[in-house]
Write a structure and sequence with these properties.
262 residues, mainly alpha, 11 helices, 77% helix
């Protein structure tokens, strides 16, 4: 437990040096604000730009409910650009230590692999979860001000389910960072796979049940309908099992590989 605490402190110090602890939350605050602001002012902007050309504005754009706009923040901002930002920010989570020989050095100390992986995943997940949460609350405040009010309980429940999806993103990126040596390849594989998971949501009820990205859809449904889909609990449990499996693979990959200076 002491080793885990030391490793967590080390990670946070490194995040502070890289300013990631600052720019990542700021990035999600901007993403959270963009969706409601653009949605609210877009009809006026299009009308002004249309001028004599007579651009027709869909009346439904001006009467969207706050819950729909907040849901679109998750689907349009966080699940696209936000996902890419997370993957890029964590592409060196293990790879950097492999490349500079730090991983081999750390594992020669009285530090077990579980503590090492735990320190990496815990610190990066807490930062990612904090960034997503603060961006989400920013969007929530703008939505309540510009559109109709979203019930706090619906907003909070949707966030909790969405954060499980974030946990999967962090875990998967950690695994890819453990296996591959190039940060570009790590980011590319992570982004393609995770966005691919998001794109196939809704194709099949069976796939949705085992697809971690379905939690984003469930979060959006809760915001819009206020009802928790009966399949959501099963999806959460299967996602957590997937996370444990990913961390187990990461553990054995590090345990049985010789990470010399590369």
């Amino acid at each position: 437990m002491k080793n885990l605490t030391v490793l967590i402190e080390k990670e946070y110090v490194q995040m502070l040096r890289d300013s990631k602890i600052i720019w990542l939350p700021v990035a999600f605050i901007l993403l959270g604000a963009i969706q409601p602001v653009v949605t609210y002012y877009l009809p006026a902007i299009l009308e002004a730009l249309g001028g004599s050309q007579g651009i027709i504005i869909d009346p439904s754009m001006t009467v969207q409910k706050g819950s729909e706009v907040l849901a679109s923040t998750l689907g349009s901002q966080f699940d696209q650009l936000g996902l890419m930002i997370l993957a890029i920010s964590m592409m060196g989570i293990i790879q950097t230590d492999k490349a500079n020989g730090m991983l081999a050095f750390i594992l020669t100390r009285p530090v077990n692999v579980t503590s090492y992986i735990g320190g990496k995943v815990v610190t990066n997940y807490l930062l990612a979860a904090f960034s997503v949460t603060i961006g989400y609350f920013t969007s929530y405040l703008y939505v309540n001000y510009l559109f109709t009010t979203v019930q706090f309980s619906h907003m909070l429940t949707g966030l909790l389910f969405y954060l499980v999806w974030i946990l999967f993103i962090v875990s998967f990126t950690t695994l890819i960072s453990t296996i591959f040596h190039s940060q570009g390849i790590i980011a590319l594989i992570s982004i393609v796979f995770l966005i691919g998971c998001r794109m196939i949501v809704g194709l099949s009820p069976i796939i949705d049940q085992v697809n971690p990205a379905s939690l984003s859809k469930h979060a959006m449904e809760i915001l819009i309908t206020g009802v928790v889909n009966p399949n959501t609990v099963g999806n959460v449990l299967l996602t957590l099992v997937g996370v444990l499996f990913i961390l187990l693979v990461t553990y054995y990959w590090i345990l049985y590989k010789k990470f010399d200076h590369e």
